[in-house]
Amino acid sequence: MDLTEEMHDPVPIHPDAAATLAAGRPMVPPDERSIDDLPPGQRVRFSGDGGEYFKIWATNLALTILTIGIYSAWAKVRRLRYFYGNTTLSGSTFDFHGRPAAILRGRIVALILLVLYTQSAKISIALFVGTVLAIAAIFPWLFYRSLCFRLGNTSYRGVRFHFGGTAAGAYAFFTPIILLVLAPNLLLATLAEGGKPGYAQAFELVGLYLLILLVWPYFLHRLRTYQHGEAYFGRTRFSYGGTAGMFYGLIMKCAGLMFLAGIVVGVVGAAIAGVARTSGVHEPVSQQMAGVITILVVVPIYGFMLALIPYWTSRSQNIVWGNTALAGSRFRSDLRFKPLFWIDTVNFFLTIFTLGIFRPFAAIRSARVRLEAVGFEGDVGVFEGAEEASSGAMGSEFVDLFGFDISL
Amino acid sequence: MIQALFFDGKSTVATPVALRADGGLLHIQAAGWQRCERAESLEFTPPYARSAARVNLPDGALCEVPPGDFLGLRRALAKPPGLIELIESRWRYALLSLAVIVVCVASVYVWGIPIAVGIIVERAPRTLDSHFGKSTLTQLESYGLIGPKRAATPREERLSRRFAQLAGGTAVPYQLDFRDFPAGPNAFALPDGTILMSSEIEALTQNDDALMFVLAHELGHLYYRHGVKLLARATLTSILITWYAGDVSNALALATVGVLNLRYSREAEAQADAFAIARLRAAHIPTRPAADLFRAMQKTSSKEGEGKPRKFAVEPPDYLSSHPATKDRIRLLDSDTP
Question: How far is CA A78 from CA A56, A81, A96, A98, A107, in A?
């Protein structure tokens, strides 16, 4: 079917649209996430090609090496333009307008922070603590600027997105989590100097991680509310209707799966140790035997993580995009675990066996399965651009080096 | 005539238009209006084979052109692709890029890192070495890998006196520290100059010449500052690998760093061996007893699987080993008897 024809058809507005607009938050029946009943024009299509992207990737990497990293900013623009330019909704693709110089500026700042973070501890503990505190203090602002930059430089059909949130908003939800993560760690660092017994430190660490586990879903919820709830397409604001409970449910399932896997690995490990003992291996167990046991325990853990990560990815994408709406029209996301698990696993092994050459192909395969699970219930042809180009398009992108890139 | 969609940059409403290129001008014809743009003011997005391409107009408006018509339109307007775009679209440049990547990464590993390490370690003060030595000693003790400090036996005192003569000319500050190692016969040098030797290795031989070689080997590590060098190398290698493989898997990156650093470690061991052989030869001490000691150590390590088929007794291949193969070291020591 011709997509350009498709998009002139009147699009049925979701019956709940008016009600949800009035309530300010879309209602999301969980069973309505399937995109199968959406017309093809309202489903995201990704046309990236592994071979085509491989050429861009190889050029990017070689030029980045030859320019000692400076080209990486230009490379990023070319990469994003490739992925955006191959993401189609209703016949139109997305575009990225970020200036490489701004990205380079952001990367230099991020690199300086990274070097300070990794090297200052070797000079003095006071300098390290100072660096960590300084990074913690400016991180929310950097995150906010990055959101502005990324959204402000993305366009669809000539209309720019922009981010309408404030830096204060970023501080409001980052501050508690930063304090939560930092305070006990700094405490531990100073206690370790004082020679506290190891088991006490271990208890504190376990307690800390349990606390983070309890607070993390709420943090994710706030993060998505900030990211999606204050984003604009032209004049139209996105809304985010997810609840913290959705992330709590997901993390509970993941924790349950991890618990089960832990029991299985523990039982298998104990069984192997028992067999080894009865078959007459004397203490101390030889180094090679210890190695075999380690492999028998580590490999299943790794395999389990290979399954858990796509499980988390698919479920959280469905939560986030399934609860995002634009002008009362919902997005849908129906990313299934099985296809994502298959693609991620094949990607992982092929990337290792090809010493990284498969990476561009992996990126395309992964983007396709994620993007093509998304659909939009509304009509994309009715949105007005903002009066003025938002100032958010200026500034720099910082987040990359911290491994905290913004999804789609 | 090319059928395209026009967007005015103010809304997402699509207007079907016809495009025509003529004498460096782009004519845009819609149902109720037309406009004309000079080719120089247009920006063409890179043409990807499978999605609509864009012609950006100077006022923020744009035309979406079907992928099949895009290249022809661009040719008609004499807008050649940029250099990067040309490079990106050809397989031969992609393969050339791949070759550049491999050569650069390999050169950094083979030459770049050792040169950088040389420069860094030359500038780093010796006080830094002793800092690492102290923390390592505390760690070894707290993990129970070495026993507590104890008084030296008469034999150890004799060894110390003899070794002082052997090490005299090297001007390397060191102090000997004899301990019990629960993990078996071993000896190592810490960056601050502490040479640790296990009583288990003393028990393996009655010949003090063999132990002189062991101590001289450790002194060689101190002489070349291998401890700090290995640390600097490990840091730089892990930066390289994390950059390359970090986004695939951090654990994988760490494992690779470990394997890659083994090569540096083997080179350092060979260097320390050569140093020790030279010292012993200068002092007219035979090295054959050290070869006997290595043979004895080999025997103890293969004794662990006693009474069972030696499934794992094969030595790991050279590239997976932190030390040169023992049989090579033995051959070297056997042949170097003065």
Answer: 8, 5, 9, 10, 16
Number of Cα atoms under 13 Å in the Cβ half of residue B43: 10
Q: Mapping DSSP to helix (H, G, I), strand (E, B) and coil, where does residue A9 land?
A: coil
Query: What span, in angstroms and rounded, lies between the C-alpha atoms of B97 and A75?
Result: 14
User: What ipTM score was computed for the predicted complex, to two decimals?
Assistant: 0.76
Contact residues for A17 (Cβ-Cβ < 8 A; gap 6+): A328, A329, A378
Please tell me which of the candidates A56, A58, A286 has its beta carbon nearest to residue B305: A286
Identity of residue B118: G
Interface test with B, best of A157, A161, A301, A350 (most B CBs within 10 A): A157
pLDDT digits (tens, 9 = 90+) for B153-201: 888 888 888 888 888 877 788 888 888 877 777 788 888 888 888 888 8
In whole angstroms, what is the distance from residue A93 CA to residue A390 CA? 21
> Could you tell me which chain B residue has the CA closest to the CA of A68?
B104
Helix (H, G, I), strand (E, B) or coil at A103: helix
CB B38 within 8 A of CB B73: no
Contact residues on chain A for B12, CB-CB shorter than 8 A: 156-159, 234, 380-383
Closest approach of chain B CAs to the CA of A276, in angstroms?
A: 13
- Contact A240/A229 with Cβ under 8 angstroms? yes
CB contact under 8 A, A59 and B87: yes
Cβ A269 vs Cβ A293: under 8 Å = yes
pLDDT confidence of residue A405: 40
Cβ separation of B9 and A95 shorter than 8 Å? Answer: no
Tell me the pTM.
0.77
Instruction: Give percent of chain B above pLDDT 70.
Output: 86
Q: Dig out the tokens for B172 from the structure.
A: 């390397």
| pLDDT band with cut points at 50, 70 and 90 for residue A15 | very low
- Rounded to whole angstroms, the Cα distance separating A368 from A377 reads 20
B61 contacts in chain A (CB < 8 Å): 158
pLDDT single digits (tens) B42-72 = 988 877 878 888 999 998 899 999 888 888 8
When mean pLDDT is compared across A86-90, A148-152, A342-346, the lowest value belongs to: A148-152
- A317 close to A333: Cβ distance less than 8 angstroms: yes
DSSP bridge partners of B53: B65
Cross-chain CB nearest to B12 (options A81, A352, A380): A380
Q: What is the 3-state secondary structure (H, E, C) of B8-65?
A: CCCECCCEEEEEEEECCEEEEECCCCEEEEEHHHCEECCCCCCCCEEEECCCCCEEEE
Residue B209 to chain A, least CA–CA distance (Å): 30
Of A8, A93, A289, the CB nearest to B51: A93
The alpha carbon of A313 is separated from its chain's Cα centroid by a whole number of angstroms, namely 8
In the chain, the amino acid numbered B155 is R
Q: A interface mutation test: which of B2, B12, B83, B186 has the most A CBs within 10 A?
A: B12
Q: Measured between CB atoms, which of B5, B11, B96 is closest to A384?
A: B11
DSSP 8-state code for residue A98: -
Which residues share a beta bridge with B22?
Answer: B25
Chain A residues whose CB is inside 8 A of the B248 CB are 348, 351-352, 356, 359
Q: What is the pLDDT of residues A343-375, one digit of tens each?
A: 999 998 998 888 888 989 999 999 999 999 999
